[in-house]
Amino acid sequence: MIGLLIFLGVVAVVVFYGIAVYNGLVALRNQFKNAFSQIDVQLQRRYDLIPNLVETAKGYMKHERETLEAVIQARNQAATAARAVEADPTNALAMRELGGAENALSGMLSRFFALAEAYPDLNANQTMMQLQEELSSTENKIAFARQAYNDAVMHYNTKRESFPDSIIAGSFSFTAAQLLELEEQEARKPVKVSF
After folding, report:
1. Distance CA 90, CA 78 (A)
2. Does 34 map to a domain?
3. Total structural domains in the chain?
4. What is the 3-state secondary structure (H, E, C) of 134-189?
5. Is 131 helix (H, G, I), strand (E, B) or coil?
6. Is 36:15 a contact under the CB 8 Å cutoff?
7. Which is nearest to 187 in space by CA: 145, 155, 133?
8. Closest residue by Cα to residue 159 from 11, 9, 30
9. b/e map of 145-178 (b: 16 or more CB within 10 Å)?
10. How many CB atoms lie within 10 A of CB 99?
11. Whole-angstrom distance between the N-terminal and C-terminal Cα of the chain?
C-alpha cells in the first residue's frame, strides 16, 4: 500500500511538473507574440509616415521620381511582410522576410535622405522637418520594441530547449521562435535628420 502511494505521489509530481512546464511555455510564447505586436504598432506608424514624407518631397524632388517610387515600393513590401508575421509570429521564414524587407526599406530611406540634402528648400520645409523628426522618433521606438521582442524570444527559446522542458516542448510542438535581425550597418544607425 505504501509503495502504491509513493508511486501515485511521484506520478502526480511528474504530471504537475509537466503541466507547469506546458503553461510556462504557453505564457512565454504569448509574451513574444505580444512583444511582436508592439513592434508592429511602431512599424505601422513608420509605414504611415513614409507616404507623407514622399508626398512632401515630390514637389521639390521632381527629378528623383525613381527614388521616390522605390521608397514607396520598399515600404509596401515591408508592410506586406509585417502583415505575414503579424498573422503568425512563430513563422521563421516570415520573420526573416520581414528582416530583409526592413533592411531594404532602411536602405531606401537612407538614399532618400541623402538625396533630400541636395534640396535646401525641402530641408527648410516645416512639414518635412516635422515628418523627419517623427520618423526618427519612431525608429528609436522600433529599436526598443525589437530589443524587447528579441529578449522575449531568447527567453522562450531557452526554456523550450532546456532539459527536461524540451521533452514537453517537443511533445506539444512548441517550435523555435525567430529573432528579428536587421543588418548591422542600417539597424544601428539612427535615421539622419538634417535641417
Report:
1. 18
2. yes
3. 1
4. HHHHHHHHHHHHHHHHHHHHHHHHHHHHCCCHHHHHHHCCCCCCCCCCCCHHHHCC
5. helix
6. no
7. 145
8. 30
9. bbebbbebbeebbebbeeeebeebbeeeebeebb
10. 21
11. 84
Find the domain containing 150 and state its range: 23-187
- Average pLDDT, stretch 15-19? 93
Cβ contact 49:132 at 8 Å: no
Task: Give the mean pLDDT of 39-49.
Answer: 92
What's the chain's average pLDDT? 87
Q: Which residue has the higher pLDDT, 195 or 36?
A: 36
pLDDT beyond 60 at 192: no
For residues 10 and 189, which has the higher predicted lDDT (pLDDT)? 10
Residue 158 resides in a domain: yes
Could you tell me the CATH number of the domain that includes residue 39?
1.20.1440.20
CA distance 100 to 179: 13
Q: Is 165 a member of any domain?
A: yes
15 part of a folded domain? no
Q: Please state, in angstroms and rounded to a whole number, the distance separating the CA atoms of residues 195 and 60.
A: 15
| Three-class SS state of 194 | coil
DSSP labels, 37-99: HHHHHHHHHHHHHHHHHHHHHHTT-GGGHHHHHHHHHHHHHHHHHHHHHHH-TT-HHHHHHHH
- pLDDT tens profile 141-156: 998 999 999 999 999 9
Average pLDDT for residues 105-116, to the nearest whole number?
Answer: 88
Assigned C-alpha cell, 9: 505521489
